[in-house]
């Protein structure tokens, strides 16, 4: 999304307020840098990952989730934090070709992994076919769950092609069909509070080349 | 989340020995349950031992004609394995009935067995819970118990075990293979792996301090019709109110285990023997000593009807 020239974005306001809070908070306890140097500073660990094709090297508080590493450290804010407990799917990213909840995994557990976020699927000028289909079919309203929905949708089609069975696969001895029933079942880990589900299903069907 | 130190294990024995030597250390594999609980500070390990680099992610055939499933085999891979789909269909069915695609991609075989209850009183740190804080009482007894256990529970705890996979493992007579901190191994029958709460609901499994699950073994396939029927509030991505795992032969004989009703996958050998007599007989035996609450008494009728439906399906 683009911001109007000269306009102050909501994100800028949030950043400014957060900085203000940090300064206010530091008055009583000394600078943030000093606080980090204290002997009781939380443990850190190093991790190298390839994120959207680019090698990254981070040293992080061990508690940092992959989601927070992407958003707060690599500034890839396309991936969203919804419930932060693996229930809503807004944080879905693709790691080594598989979709996962980035909120329920520690960044330091991803040494050497390849991570693809919504930013790595396509760009404004060169949308991924799934992104284009979401736009065409109105697969979103507020858009908050959309990056997770799209990452999940892209991986779901791959899962069906790979022959991975699902709860609605009638014959688990055979390969699952590329059907909207299969797609809907497999998307149950992505919640959309606006209720764009049927349009998401249409977008997925279009990319899969089947009738919605 | 409380701060913790982190290391990547170099071998199974190294991991087990370190976990035994450090009180408060925990293994982490998929992490989908542990991290959820750490965020809520229900789990507060001071040290995490990441076992993901240890291999243990293969499914191999055993000399006895069964399968040995590595502890780190992801739920997705176990469900998709051709041999599992062909000979242990109840296991694939149970796996794909659980969680979401994202979670199944991370969740491991061992971690699934070790996942903790979703009792809302266990999750709410403002409520008493003997499992979370031994001796604090049970908020669920006398509270909202619709999702909770009706059999195998105690006056200290009425939580259920949340796993679908474990119910299938129980009906298949799986055994859990472990490594102890001194490097010795043992096999624990799945029937003895999960503990009933009694007065110590905080003790959930037979594992000793530091003991690491390395694999789960399935015996030689027995044939029969494999069914996993899960009844829940939503059609997908919800825990079971009641689930039934069954393997039933052409002669009507077989085995049945239930999920969603007890602190462990619920199977009674004498109830298995009653399968040819029908759902009423099986259900009466399975729930002979049930202590349902007002909110969850419906589970007994629901289980009986689900068993009836499963028996009918097996007859074709």
From TrEMBL, chain A:
Coiled coil: none annotated. Pfam families: Fer2 (PF00111), Fer2_2 (PF01799). Keywords: 2Fe-2S, Iron, Iron-sulfur, Metal-binding, Oxidoreductase. InterPro entries: 2Fe-2S-bd, 2Fe-2S-bd_dom_sf, 2Fe-2S_ferredoxin-like_sf, 2Fe-2S_ferredoxin-type, 2Fe2S_fd_BS, Aldehyde_Oxdr_Iron-Sulfur, Beta-grasp_dom_sf, TAT_signal. It comes from the Bacteria. Residues 45-121 form the 2Fe-2S ferredoxin-type domain. One of its GO terms (cellular component) is periplasmic space. GO terms for molecular function: 2 iron, 2 sulfur cluster binding; metal ion binding; oxidoreductase activity, acting on the aldehyde or oxo group of donors. This is Ferredoxin. It comes from Novosphingobium barchaimii LL02.
Automatic annotation (TrEMBL), chain B:
It comes from the Bacteria. Residues 1-223 form the FAD-binding PCMH-type domain. Keywords: FAD, Flavoprotein. GO terms for molecular function: FAD binding; oxidoreductase activity. InterPro entries: CO_DH_flav_C, CO_DH_flav_C_dom_sf, Diverse_Substr_Oxidored, FAD-bd_PCMH, FAD-bd_PCMH-like_sf, FAD-bd_PCMH_sub1, FAD-bd_PCMH_sub2, Mopterin_DH_FAD-bd. Signal peptide: none annotated. The keyword Cell membrane does not apply. This is Xanthine dehydrogenase. It comes from Novosphingobium barchaimii LL02.
């Amino acid at each position: 999304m683009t911001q109007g020239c000269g306009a102050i974005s909501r994100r800028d306001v949030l950043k400014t307020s957060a900085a203000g809070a940090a300064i206010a908070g530091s008055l009583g306890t000394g600078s943030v840098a000093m606080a980090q140097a204290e002997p009781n500073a939380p443990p850190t660990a190093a991790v190298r990952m390839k994120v959207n094709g680019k090698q990254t090297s981070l040293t992080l508080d061990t508690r940092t989730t992959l989601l927070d590493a992407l958003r707060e450290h690599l500034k890839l804010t396309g991936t969203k934090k919804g419930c932060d407990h693996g229930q809503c799917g807004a944080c879905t990213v693709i790691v080594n070709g598989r979709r996962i909840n980035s909120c329920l995994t520690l960044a330091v557990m991803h040494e050497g992994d390849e991570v693809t976020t919504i930013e790595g699927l396509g760009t404004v000028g060169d949308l991924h076919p799934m992104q284009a289909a979401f736009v065409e079919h109105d697969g979103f309203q507020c858009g908050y769950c959309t990056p997770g929905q799209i990452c999940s949708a892209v991986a779901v089609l791959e899962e069906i092609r790979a022959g991975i069975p699902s709860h609605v696969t009638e014959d688990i001895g055979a390969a699952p069909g590329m059907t909207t029933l299969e797609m809907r079942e497999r998307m149950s880990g992505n919640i959309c509070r606006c209720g764009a589900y049927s349009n998401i299903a249409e977008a997925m069907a279009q990319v899969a080349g089947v009738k919605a | 989340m409380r701060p913790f130190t982190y290391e990547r294990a170099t071998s199974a024995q190294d991991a087990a020995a370190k976990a035994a030597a450090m009180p408060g250390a925990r293994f982490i594999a998929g992490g989908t349950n542990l991290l959820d609980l750490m965020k809520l500070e229900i789990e507060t390990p001071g040290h995490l031992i990441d076992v993901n680099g240890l291999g243990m992610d293969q499914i191999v055939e055993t000399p006895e004609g069964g399968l040995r499933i590595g502890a780190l085999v992801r739920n997705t891979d176990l469900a998709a394995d051709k041999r599992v789909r062909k000979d242990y269909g109840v296991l694939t069915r149970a796996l794909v009935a659980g969680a979401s695609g994202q979670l199944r991609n991370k969740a491991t075989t061992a971690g699934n067995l070790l996942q903790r209850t979703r009792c809302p009183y266990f999750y709410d740190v403002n409520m008493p819970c003997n499992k979370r804080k031994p001796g604090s009482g049970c908020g669920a007894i006398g509270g909202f118990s619709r999702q909770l256990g009706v059999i195998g529970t105690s006056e200290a705890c009425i939580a259920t075990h949340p796993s679908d996979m474990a119910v299938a493992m129980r009906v298949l007579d799986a055994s859990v293979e472990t490594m102890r901190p001194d490097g010795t191994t043992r096999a624990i029958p799945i029937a003895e792996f999960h503990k009933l709460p009694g007065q110590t609901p905080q003790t959930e499994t037979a594992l000793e301090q530091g003991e690491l699950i390395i694999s789960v073994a399935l015996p030689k396939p027995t044939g029969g019709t494999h069914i996993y029927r899960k009844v829940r509030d939503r059609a997908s991505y919800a825990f079971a109110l009641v689930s039934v795992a069954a393997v039933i032969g052409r002669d009507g004989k077989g085995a049945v285990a239930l999920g969603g009703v007890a602190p462990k996958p619920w199977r009674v050998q004498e109830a298995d023997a009653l399968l040819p007599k029908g759902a009423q007989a099986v259900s009466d035996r399975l729930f002979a000593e049930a202590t349902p609450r007002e909110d969850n008494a419906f589970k007994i009728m629901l289980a009986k009807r689900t068993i009836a439906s499963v028996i009918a399906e097996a007859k074709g």
